[in-house]
Specification:
By secondary structure, the protein is mainly α. It contains 5 helices and no strands. The relative contact order is 0.13.
């Protein structure tokens, strides 16, 4: 049962990410970082949402079906970690959009994160 909750959480986070991405992009607060998904978003909200849901559902079903494998459990943990981090980005985007976080803080955080990830690449 624990595996079902984790895969459902992954799908739910994927859906929340899709809806928030559409909202932020359509209101001019952000851009889609994935070029393929940005192209779909340029076509329209429905194609973007359909592909995003299809990818999320496929990933959740595959991870749930093969959840007995160690690699699948690691993949699920990694995907959940990434999506939870992505929700943090959506949170800061929202705080910035509503004027609760200054633009200079966002730029500083961007520079810090770029330097942090550059150390690993």
């Amino acid at each position: 049962m624990q595996l079902f909750r984790q895969t459902f959480l992954l799908f739910a986070l994927n859906l929340i990410d899709a809806v928030l991405t559409i909202y932020w992009v359509r209101n001019g607060f952000a851009t889609e970082g994935n070029h393929l998904m940005a192209t779909l978003l340029d076509i329209g909200d429905l194609p973007f949402l359909a592909v995003k849901i299809a990818i999320g559902a496929t990933a959740a079903v595959v991870l749930w079906h093969w959840g007995n494998l160690r690699l699948a459990r690691y993949g699920l943990t990694l995907a959940l970690t990434l999506y939870i981090g992505l929700m943090g980005i959506h949170l800061f985007t929202g705080l910035s959009a509503f004027g609760l976080v200054s633009e200079s803080f966002i730029q500083d955080a961007s520079a810090w994160s770029s330097a942090f990830f550059a150390a690993f690449i």
